[in-house]
Amino acid sequence: MSLQQYKLHCPKSKRGIIFTLDAVIAMSIFLLVVIITTFYMAKAGEDKLAKINIYNAGSDALSVIDNKNLLKELDEEEIESELKNILLAKYSMRLQIRTNNDLSLDIGKQPPVGRFIGSGERFFVTKDNNFGIARFSIWEKE
Amino acid sequence: MAKGQIAVLDLVVSVVVFLIVMTGFFIAWNSYNNRLDDSLLSNEMSLHAFQIMQQLITTPGVPGNWENNVSSLKFIGLAYSDRIIDEAKLDSLNTINYNDLKNKMNIKRFEVFILVKQGNQAVYEIGNTTKGKTIHIERGVMYKNEPSTIQVALSKK
């Protein structure tokens, strides 16, 4: 739009803010870019390390239980007591153990909904030479 | 107000807004630059710490019996089997020069500290730490037939 055309179409009260309007639009775009960038940077900076640590804590606890031959014995009380000993107080863990002779053990509370749950499994052989699988779910307490 | 004055006022206001935008831009640029550098360093240190820890607690090292001849050590591992720490390997770690230890772990730029605990009691420690940025990793293992924790702390010189 030429200056002549602008003068013809633009009301008198709105004249004289061309530069300001331009700068305000630029500032709005800049602020928008800053807000979006900050949001994505914060999202990218989420503590991935904490999530890996949660998973490792569960995997290590199950490994210690297996290395102490508690999975072989399938003693629910022993496993539960050992879990309390080795797991850091900030974590909760659920252990589901199934064997091929239909024996099943569920130890620990149900995992909460809407939170990060680390999970994994480990295979083992029982004292009766049956095959078993132990699945763990671990999460941080509130 | 005369037409000429309106244009000048408009220019002044726009210049002020422009300066605010430019100042904000440079502050944001500087802040993001620092955060990006910090994040890159954290990622690098975390990756090293995780690799070192995994290597220590799940492998016996190369050669597998390096504790019998420490000079033959090519790759450090402390495991007798998966997440079971070999006492002899841990003892032999003390005979290795600290800088050689870092070289074997490929972390010349960082300081490393390894701590083994049973309950709240420290039963083994080796290495150095600094007051700079530090990454801590803790894992559960078996040591001397007891559930234990091993910690690796990697810090920037």
Write up this protein.
The complex is a heterodimer of chains A (142) and B (157). Chain A has five helices and four strands; from the N terminus they run αααααββββ. With 142 residues, chain A is α+β, with helices and mostly antiparallel strands. In chain A, helix 3 packs across helix 5 (76-86). Chain B is of the alpha+beta class and 157 residues long. Chain B has one domain (41-156). Chain B is built from three helices and eight strands. Chain B has helices at 3-58, 87-93, 98-105, and strands at residues 61-62, 75-76, 79-81, 84-85, 110-118, 121-127, 134-143, 146-156. Chain B has a six-stranded mixed sheet with strand order 3-4-7-8-5-6. A two-stranded antiparallel ribbon of chain B has the order 1-2. The longest helix of chain B is centred in the N-terminal third of the chain and has 56 residues, at 3-58. Chain B is elongated. The model of chain B has no long low-confidence stretch (mean pLDDT 89). Classes of the chains: A alpha+beta (142), B alpha+beta (157). The A-B interface holds A 15-20, 22-24, 26-27, 30-31, 34, 37, 41, 44-45, 49, 52-53, 56-57, 60-61, 63-64, 67-68, 82, 85-86 and B 3, 6-7, 9-11, 13-15, 17-18, 20-21, 24-25, 28, 32, 35, 39, 46, 50, 81-84, 135, 137-142, 147.
What's the order of the H and E elements of chain A? HHHHHEEEE
Structural class by helix and strand composition of chain B? alpha+beta
Q: Characterize the largest beta sheet of chain B: strand count, sense, and whether it forms a barrel.
A: 6 strands, mixed
The most extensive contact between chains is: A-B, 32 and 33 residues
- What is the terminal-to-terminal distance of chain A? 61 Å
Show unreliable segments of chain B.
none
CATH class of the largest domain in chain A: Alpha Beta
| Count of individual domains of chain A | 2
What's the Cα radius of gyration of chain A? Answer: 30 Å
State which percent range the strand residues of chain B make up.
25-35%
* Annotation, overall tally of beta strands of chain B: 8
CATH topology of the largest domain in chain A, anyone?
Answer: Beta-Lactamase
**In CATH terms, what is the architecture of the largest domain in chain A?**
2-Layer Sandwich
For the biggest β-sheet of chain A, the strand order reads 2-1-4-3
Strand order of the largest sheet of chain B: 3-4-7-8-5-6
The run of helices and strands of chain B is HEEEEHHEEEE
What does the overall shape of chain A look like?
rod-shaped
